[in-house]
Amino acid sequence: MSFYILPLAIGPWQIALIVVVVLLLFGGKKIPELMRGLGSGIKEFKDASKEEGDEPANDKK
Predict the structure, then answer these.
(1) Is there a contact between 31 and 23 (Cβ–Cβ < 8 Å)?
(2) Count of domains in the chain?
(3) Does pTM surpass 0.70?
C-alpha cells in the first residue's frame, strides 16, 4: 500500500474537526447562506452541462 494514499483517508474525527473549524470561521448564521449558494452553483453547473450535451455536434465529419 502506498504511503501517499494514507493521508487522504478522512475518518469521523477529521470530519468533526472540519465542521467545528467551519462553524468557528463562518458562524451559525452564515452557513445556510453558503450552502444555498453552493447548491445553486451546482444546479447551474448541471443545467449548463445538460445544455452542452443536448446540442448536436456539427464539427464531426
Answers:
(1) yes
(2) 1
(3) no
